[in-house]
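Note to self: keep these together.
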Amino acid sequence: MNKKKHRGFKFWQSIHFKFPLVFALLLLVTFQIVGAIFVQNLRTENIKSFKQRVELSTYVDNSLIASLQKTDTEAANKSIIRLLENVNNENITQIQVVDSKGTIRGDSNVNNRSLVGQKTTNGDVKQVIYKGRSLTKTTYNREGNRYYISITPLFSASGNTNTVIGAVYVRANMEPVYNSTNSVVLIFATASLIATGIGMALAVMIARAITTPIEEMRRQTQKVARGDYSGHVRVYSEDELGDFARNINDLAVRVEDSQETIDSERRRLNMVLTHMSDGVLGTDRRGNITLINEMAQEA
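Structure:
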């Protein structure tokens, strides 16, 4: 049981695991940074393009201004409603026209036609008419869907001054924009995961190409440390790892030659000491006997 745990621990600590892991983490971090910037810019551009698409044309604004300036209110309201019905924009869910007195003069939603002639209760519309400045904001309905609100004042040039004669309230559904962005994000995330998987597979292959000769060199050095000089490290390439493998092979040969020379000299020394008539005694610096021949033992 302990042996299995030890092997598992060694695997988690080995380069076989670390190299693909580091490579995968680098890919994920890179994709996260690039994806965050890409998605943010994409969302910003899509929203900007969406706001431009839901803006009413200059022709519609001028026609609404002309209708609001008519003295015949009933005819003007019919003209406004016809204009709103002719606005062909699938993103716009509601267009409402309010005059300078806060009276609703037209609405593109058929269900709200009964509000024509009544005072608006929308505080934002009243604020735009009073200040003469456009207002835009994002709101949510009960289902949580996002809507873009744009309220634009309508001006009538009288003399050298611009007089606010009304405002146009535009309400547009923003969910298609966010759904489109989310689809791109999903595609990007899927592609990132696939690329990360391919990267990890390549990293495993590269790690094996690097660690296989290193593993052989490790085994060979362990054999040399135990005194086994047989076998040689296979040279896989002509790069730094190949030079390292050749150096280990040369080192093993030199260590083997040195060991044979030392053994030969030791045997020669033993023969000399054995046949000497004098006693020979050798000690280390602590006084421990390290060498003694038979004559010294007999004495």
